[in-house]
Design brief:
single chain, 237 residues, mainly alpha, two-stranded antiparallel sheet, 71% helix
């Protein structure tokens, strides 16, 4: 496997640094009210408060950048760009449909706490779809490299669905990034995640011939963000 480029090293370092900051702030229950009591200059107060407000979208952006560079290394730049374009546009369309109609995930609505919004969907959401689906696929190909096309798509879709199950209580109960109409996550949401993820991967991911070299980034990105979710849930328990 080729050595990592300087950009890859910098972006992974930035992701790890920002994750560490997020974990400390989450476990320490440090929010804007806490920061306001710190003896800091006004400009530094404003900067830290901005970081707290935009911490999760920025972490997703860093995860996306790392994931895209990994995909370009594994599949080539052109294939990685096509895959990213398909996932971002189609997930944005599905999320827009879901937020407006309740299909296919169930009735929910996004709040204004998750960064800039395009229509009714935060821009971080389609980037998160790319992060989850791409890394889930690389994990599956790393562990079971000889699965047939439908098999790997279904396995990666299952990994993505499990990840969403871990994300939901963090995003709704801890951060209030979106709310379900009935107050709880419907089973329909997880069925839709499995179906949509599987179809996207089977239809648009570079083929089985593009096997993934072993790389720590898929496990790091999904694993560490999962740790952050658990820490957030623990912080309010």
């Amino acid at each position: 496997m080729k050595r990592w480029t300087l950009l890859e090293k910098i972006l992974l370092g930035a992701f790890l640094f920002w994750f560490t900051c997020g974990l400390i702030f989450t476990l320490g229950r440090i929010g804007p009210a806490t920061i306001a009591a710190w003896p800091l200059p006004a400009w530094l107060h404003a900067f830290v408060a901005l970081c707290v407000r935009t911490g999760d979208p920025l972490l997703i952006l860093l995860a996306f950048a790392n994931t895209h560079l990994l995909a370009a290394r594994q599949w080539g730049a052109a294939a990685a760009r096509r895959w990213a374009l398909f996932v971002i546009l189609l997930s944005l369309a599905v999320e827009t449909l879901g937020a407006m109609t309740g299909f296919p995930f169930g009735a929910y609505a996004y709040t204004d706490r998750f960064g800039p919004v395009l229509g009714v969907v935060p821009l971080a959401i389609p980037l998160a779809w790319h992060v989850v689906l791409t890394n889930a696929l690389f994990l599956v190909r790393g562990v079971a490299p000889h699965l047939p096309r439908w098999g790997e798509a279904l396995a990666a879709g299952f990994v993505a669905t499990l990840y969403d199950a871990l994300l939901e209580p963090f995003a709704t109960s801890v951060k209030s990034y979106w709310h379900w109409r009935d107050g709880s996550v419907p089973l329909q949401n997880y069925v839709a995640w499995l179906v949509v993820s599987t179809l996207l991967i089977h239809t648009f991911a570079p083929t089985v011939a593009g096997r993934a070299d072993r790389d720590p980034r898929p496990a790091l990105i999904l694993g560490l963000t999962g740790v952050l979710f658990v820490a957030g849930i623990y912080s309010i328990s």
